[in-house]
Structures
1.
Amino acid sequence: MKNLFFLLLVGMAFSSCDDEQVLGDTSTINLNFTALYSGEPLVTNNLDFQYKYPDGREVAFNTFNFFISDVVLLEEAGGLEAELVDIDFIDFGQNTTLEDAQKPISITNNNVPSGNYKGLKISVGVPTDLNNSSFNQFGANHPLRKNDGEWWSGWDSFIFLKVGGSYDTDGDGIGVGQDASITHHLGSNAVFRTITIPKQFVLEPGQTFDLNVVTDVLNLYQNGNEYLDISISENRITHDPDNLDVANSIVDNLGNAMSVE
């Protein structure tokens, strides 16, 4: 009996040491998402906030959202990846004041391996295996189930990214005279994109680190020194799954639009 009691104490001691080792080797990451337009906080659903498009006309926004998936940190050595987010939905549609727009949408992971990292890899969209599944198979709190309104049966796909708003067609400002709708709704497996954003940082054991992901909407429309010509009505809409030219041009710019601070 004495020997058994001694073995139990030893086992408990080793178990305690192992627990401390795991805790000591992990950190907390706050993944903070904010949206900008030409470097300024993006305010939505508020016509007091109108932004200048490069052609000189005003634009205003009521929608900006996207799915993120397979978000990982890239370790500096060894090529390993530390998973942060499986899938989630980022929605800036409630940024109706400047104060709202300056507050990030945050996702926290409390169990990230400590160490040296060299960047963030992030996919925008829903991976093919999930996109081709019925959202009804997921639990009530799953991001695809909670955001099943983003499923479009006509596309047989979730809408991966949305930019919506108004464009001033006659030069007198949004809300006066003639305005046109911007409805860039991007779906289908063809517009799924993964980008890698370089960022050197160190996660210290037991510490919390803020990783700030900034998306500038204007840069989604920039191709080199040129911008998408949204004075052309066909360029203001992406509702045809058989014509993805505009959709692809937008998601191909994600690498320029997203940055990590």
2.
Amino acid sequence: MRDPQDNHLERIKEWMLNDEMRMDALRIAAKLELNDWCLAAGFVKTMIWDKLHGYNQATMLDDIDLIYFDEDNCSEKIDQEKENHLKQVSDYPWSVKNQARMHLRNRDKPYLSSSDAMTYWVELQAAIGAKLSVNGDIIILAPFGLNIFFDNSITLNKKRAKPKAFQSRIKSKHWLEKWPNLTVIPK
């Protein structure tokens, strides 16, 4: 019997392959050859929610979160240089953040990797990313697994456990208006 996670992974990859903008963004990001990188959060989550809601038109992204992990080059200036470069080569709304320093802003213990950093994000469904292998294959990073992305929920991350920030994000990003089949799981 096949693991449902395998089916979910295949669906996500198929959707990604058929999304011209997302594939273009992945190719552009891959050219930077960053350590432990991915295009995370809304880049994948929004696509999944759109597909589960039967939307033919992709929801516009406020930004494309390019995260990476490089302990040797933690300067915010380096992130800004990479972001400026990406904005020069495309019209996408890039946001670049080295996760090796983001624990300081969030007052967490040091993160071990990009995937580990995602496990501290406010909602579980933000913890997903996509990248390209050196062969051009799509790799999906999902530290909480893929099943949570297919149950139409938004779930508070117990590790972060900031219900006010969680509710504020849901409201300010208009998730329930954009995807009305979503249910909120606060705990």
3.
Amino acid sequence: MQKLLINGKKELSGKISISGSKNATLPILAATILSDQVKLKNIPLVKDIFTMVELLKFIGLKVNVLKKKNIIIIQNLDKNIKTLAPYRLVKTMRAGVLVLGSLLTKYKKAKISLPGGCAIGTRPVNLHLFALKKLGAKIKIKNGYIIAEAKNGLKGANITFPSISVGATENAILAAFSANGKTVLRNCAIEPEIKDLIKFLNLLGGKIKTQGRKFEIYGCTKVKKNISHEVIFDRIELGTYMIAAALVGKKITFNKINSRVIQNEINILKKMGVKLKSHKSSIEILKSDNIKKINISTKPYPNFPTDLQAQLMVLMTRAHGTSKIKESIFENRFMHVPELKRMGANIEIKNKTAIIKGPSKLSGAEVMATDLRASVSLVLAGLVAENRTIINRIYHLDRGYEFLEKKLKNCKARIKRI
């Protein structure tokens, strides 16, 4: 089992290039089932992407990964297609359920294992199924599988989501892509990753219009052949490293980004006393000694993302006074708290709110990663802590962070994998 060793209290400086977005790439990979040939650029080489590639190969697509160029070329020759996503390929990654919408609209049937992924909450697929039923799919759940069919094809519908869900919005868009007629989706998630999926589908010949949380989708009758798309940057990776820079940075510059996409996060860091300069396609973070307390709540985009909650909590341990962070997306997303407390953090959980009293002096300890974002919060804690931190179960990290040690080492961090 691999571990990370971090010797903290080392000031970081340098440049970090931000990788392509994992959360944008996964639904776009699911969407390639609808196409003939696609070239995807700026792909992050992380575990979840390779799992999705294995799933597409299992379904019957021809996939070529050019690792040195971060490019994936995918062909759907419509030969020997299996409309199945087995448990072994979906159990570690929730995004596997996104092939449901694509398979249903193209092949009129699908059998998909109920998904797994991180241990951060139940995250049920009921909203996905709610939307697909409205589009005319017959659905039953049997032996841990979703069995769906639409013998006469899916038909456009008016759908209002009872609550905002990223995955359900994506699955509904994929299912409606070539459904017969017009689909109107209301109360949609509007994350930049969803906008990137829509951009890709419109390149493919789709006709999808967005206005706030309302999407209009006109069933595509002719799919374009041989398209190319460059995936957007990973805003969660950027936010993670920005927080690392705020913790132990002297001067760190981030390139290959669009600062407008993370304006809310920039504003929050500024409120906390982080010194930063924001440009259109780069951000610079300078040494920030006077971190201030703040109260925030995680909410759907454009508000503060749940995927940065654990990382921001580490910064809150440096703040003067009491900070609060309310988790309103997932019910089980404070699993990093006991590990941070082992390192000396003063954190108390009441209902869905973490109360962080600072500043705390963190010291290195042996800790255990429980999910993707929790594990990276322990890396951040290790960077700022005195002495050595050992992080176990780092396979969670590899699901979503490309070249993490290399990027930090380039900025003079003392970090290694054993």
4.
Amino acid sequence: MLSLFEIIAILLVLSAIFGWVNERFIGLPHVIGLLVMALLASIALIVFDEIVPVLGVRDVVEQTLAEIDFYDTMMNGMLAFLLFAGALQIDLSRLRAEAWAVGSMATVGVVISTFIVGFGFYLIARLIGVDIPLIWALVFGALISPTDPVAVLALLKSIEIPQRLEIKIAGESLFNDGVGVVLFTLLIGIATRTEELTLLYVGELFLWEAVGGAILGLVVGLVAVRAMEAVDNYPVEIMITLGLVTGLYAVALRLHMSGPIAVVITGILVGNRGVRTAMSEVTREHLFQFWEFIDELLNSVLFLLIGLEVLIVTLAPSLVGLAVATIPLVLAARLISVTVPLSLLSLRDSFTPGSIPILTWGGVRGGISVALALAIPFGDVREPILVATYAVVIFSIVVQGLTIMPLIRRVLRPETPD
């Protein structure tokens, strides 16, 4: 059994090698390049194992991957740092200006998509001959509907779009995963414990997890900013942000509140009020460079892991059709979940022309969806949901990620304002 240090060493070495090869010879956006190379390495390993099964290379790699709890690594480790690093970059004044659009897509949009995907997935599975109960199909809808903030923010670094549109995409991705996790928690609780669904229960869960997480993040963030205002020493202030992220996320999880929402609120607070009142120019430069490096490092490891984790997915021939059919279903649900709130809001506000197709195609899924799928208990429904999740995630990161820029050039006029 490998030690934790050895596992980290392997992931960092592979990230460095794949990153260098991509930068030197391939030239894809960094995280997409890492994912593609990890996928190719996984496929090559599968083929090699079929040709020379006596060596058992795949078994060794799978045993190593089995020692990495992807759900725990992502949801209770990497996510807190990645969300904070992303939230630091959000301009609060621009977010306020787009608050209705961001809020409606992150709440109403996620709920709409969850039910469209859930019912559609249930019907497609029945047509193909895969037995998936409706409640589990809705669980899949909840885990695949939120856009992934990590993947989305990584994508935004490689494209240029008007700032109003960028803040919608980034803001929605930072908040809708919290709503999605609440929905997922609710639905998987019903699926596994046959819990009665009542409006009161849903309301209490949402208030405690989502609203409670936001209030916790706001209070702790204000305390941290005040602490940073009292000193002018950038190593100490960077340590404060590290303690803030880890401590806040741990407390939120212990209180069964939304850690992602709490960290996002705190990150926005530190990145705006903290920059204005608590940081010298030297501190700001060092702090933002530090968190940018953390973001790049963890993104590299995460997308490498997503590509390698495909080795643990058993792709039965009967599930290929389900996986392929799920991709257009999720895209159609995304289109409707974006169109409905924005169409209603357009009665009182104007939007950048081309917003709907860009928001639809830019709704990338990533590690959070994979982590939630891997959290589903072992049973007959786990494998179909896991395969469908991987199909959507890989398609969205690779295909949508590589084609979003041509779409932007096509639908946005050159004179489109920020």
